[in-house]
Design goal:
Length: 501
């Protein structure tokens, strides 16, 4: 087989254009890239919140942050605030960064747990996080690059208009040589001997051949699901939300540097503040809430003037059994879906692209490379799945059928083991692969009332009075560091404001 030279990407949107831009920019001259999309087929994008990993992706592509943010009308994101999850009235922030100063031999929360378990009146854990406290003050400045400084202990991501991100990446990709073809695919042809995809044919009769096909066709999964019949693993038993109502409104409240996630009787509601509007949506389970009731609840909950009627979306949690089959790789929704509770959609796209770059075939596609790709993607999906389930299962809410179901449902053994280890001694299971680190799990466990019986015994080394004094000094330093940062809206206006309408 000759060198693999022709890559055909089916579908545009965020997944398609991220893939196209990355292959063109990071494997220059390696292959001819053609992206096929139809303007008649809309994209799912309803406003997007991301994880800090997107910054590394943009940097690798040479994307200027200020230009990117102005073009996509983005805001900064220091974490996610969860309201009413453990119980009605609760609020906690899952920060992008550490608790404490990040320098200790053991995770900071063990020192905090030691004092709490001894009955000491210690401040809430988030007051020892620069990311949390900066978010609470609606402030922002980039973290320091000096690891010795307290202001280096947090990270950030973006909140942007998903309908503008794809077109922005299209300019990057086409500038690097990607060829775009407008058209709707009507047939897919497979090689009779190998079962590989050989070509796609458009409505106008044009036939496009390829060596490697990347399926970015969204929920339809035209190539991976429909053509190759790769089975879908349904996770709706653990993640029953299967609908969303999305509705933008004018931004009339604070331009928060974090995404808001507010638990509702039938699921949860998102709030994503952008420069020009605020994205809102109600994610819910149709088994417990009707579409009309969800739309009405969303209308009543939004904080500004609605800019459109609620738009319905339907989905199912789960993933394809394999994401790379024959000569076809599913990226994004074509591969699987996990609700946007922890803003993982673009991360999963990025993870697949990164693996594709690392395992890109030199000549013939290798079973070893394909198996490694599938192993790694499965790990990403499975571990994010467990993290999402934790949010639902670790609740004391019993005010609706939905919360009674998720609180009492059976959970995967992998999550049950993680929870038991944390309950026993405050330990977070560590993995070499996986997106969420200690602080992420700790913020959800403690924020939703999963409190350990013990802690790491090494936290007992310092005398209690000295430890409390040191923690109080740290809390003061965190507060001063956060208060020294500029207002979030002011920082955006000075550095990356969108063009005036």
């Amino acid at each position: 087989m000759a060198a693999l030279r022709r890559v055909v990407i089916v579908g545009g949107g965020t997944a398609g254009w991220m893939t196209a831009a990355a292959l063109a920019k990071l494997l220059p001259g390696r292959c001819a890239i053609r992206l096929v999309e139809s303007e008649a087929i809309g994209i799912v994008g309803v406003g997007e919140a991301t994880l800090p990993h997107i910054r590394a992706f943009n940097d690798r592509l040479g994307i200027d942050e200020a230009e990117f943010m102005a073009t996509t009308r983005a805001t900064f994101k220091l974490g996610i605030e969860f309201t009413n999850w453990g119980a009605i009235g609760d609020s906690y922030i899952h920060p992008f960064g550490t608790f404490g100063d990040g320098k200790g031999e053991i995770p900071f929360h063990h020192y905090w747990l030691r004092l709490k378990q001894a009955g000491v009146d210690v401040a809430p854990l988030e007051q020892y996080s620069v990311g949390c406290m900066t978010a609470r003050l609606n402030r922002f400045a980039p973290p320091s690059r000096n690891a010795e400084e307290l202001s280096s202990t947090f990270g950030y991501a973006y909140q942007f208009d998903a309908n503008l991100f794809g077109p922005y990446l299209r300019t990057v990709a086409e500038g690097a040589g990607v060829r775009r073809t407008e058209g709707k695919i009507v047939t897919v042809e497979r090689d009779g001997e190998r079962g590989d995809i050989a070509s796609v044919t458009l409505e106008n009769g044009e036939r496009i051949e390829g060596d490697l096909f990347v399926d970015c066709s969204g929920f339809r999964s035209l190539l991976l699901g429909e053509t190759l019949s790769e089975p879908f693993e349904d996770w709706s038993h653990w993640l029953p939300n299967d609908r969303a109502m999305a509705m933008p409104c004018r931004t009339e409240t604070a331009l928060t540097p974090y995404t808001g996630v507010i638990a509702m009787p039938g699921g949860w509601r998102w709030r994503i503040p952008l420069q020009h509007r605020t994205g809102n949506g109600y994610v819910y389970a149709s088994a417990f809430l009707s579409d009309d009731a969800a739309a009405d609840a969303l209308r009543q909950a939004v904080e500004g003037e609605p800019l459109a009627d609620p738009r319905p979306l339907r989905f199912k949690a789960g993933r394809r059994r394999r994401s790379w089959v024959n000569n076809c790789i599913g990226v994004g929704l074509a591969s699987g879906f996990l609700e946007p509770l922890e803003s993982t959609s673009i991360y999963l796209i990025q993870a697949a692209i990164t693996l594709l770059l690392e395992l890109f075939p030199e000549r013939e596609i290798s079973d070893v490379d394909r198996d490694e790709f599938n192993r790694m993607i499965d790990l990403e999906y499975d571990r994010i799945r467990d993290f999402l389930i934790l949010h639902y299962h670790a609740t004391r809410r019993d005010d609706s059928e939905f919360w009674n179901y998720v609180r009492t449902m059976s959970i995967p053994d992998s999550l049950a083991e993680k929870m038991e280890l944390f309950r026993r001694r405050g330990r977070v299971v560590k993995y070499r692969e996986g997106v969420f680190l200690d602080a992420s799990w700790v913020s959800v466990y403690l924020g939703q009332g999963v409190f350990p019986q013990g802690h790491d015994m090494r936290a007992d080394a310092p005398p209690a009075d000295q430890l409390l004094q040191a923690m109080e000094r740290l809390r003061g330093e965190v507060a001063r560091t956060a208060a020294s940062m500029p207002d979030h809206r002011t920082y955006i206006a000075q550095h990356c404001a969108m063009a005036a309408a």
